[in-house]
Structure prediction request, 193 residues.
Amino acid sequence: KVTFDFLIEDDRLNDVAPVLECQFGVKNGELFEPTQKIKIKDINIDGEFSNRGGSAKEHLTVRTFAFNTASGPFNGALKITEFNTPRYTGKLHGVISLGMLQTIYPIAYVSKMGGTMDIDSQFDLKTFKDNKGKLQIDPKIIMVQSVLQNASIQLQQDERLYEQINGAIDLNATRANVRDLSVKVKNSDLTVN
Prediction:
């Protein structure tokens, strides 16, 4: 079931943008990607968009989203504000298939990925334009705890397959911590404790 409730208030003044408000949601939705046979089920989303109060109060808020895949449950929340140079705040929690992630949202420089990642994160990311006008990210808050399980990755223009990647990676705005990481590259094994 999809819900969509949309309101437009327009005073017909040339110098005043119309007020837009939208409540949206999905209840018990399901998606199927037939070529890779990826199934996402039990999709539940509750969100809103509003520009009432002008650009200073404009926001897109996904109060909750949740779904299940073969890897397990995944949920979170997201708020986007300051649309000219967006600010993203939210949280993510659950297990994600890295292969599914690469199929749905291809990552540059990655040929293929596999395995799973259990993730628990909170973030507040502010974008800004550098002196060349290119959008950059300033991580105000980023706390990520993740565990890779039997992951694999192959980078573009690199014949090596990094496989059997297991371990924990914790990130914050200034530091990365890797624990109990093991990876196999061809016939060699690397372990970092």
Remarks:
- The radius of gyration is 20 Å.
- The mean pLDDT is 89.
- Residues 98-104 form the longest helix (7 residues).
- The chain is about 5% helix and 70% strand.
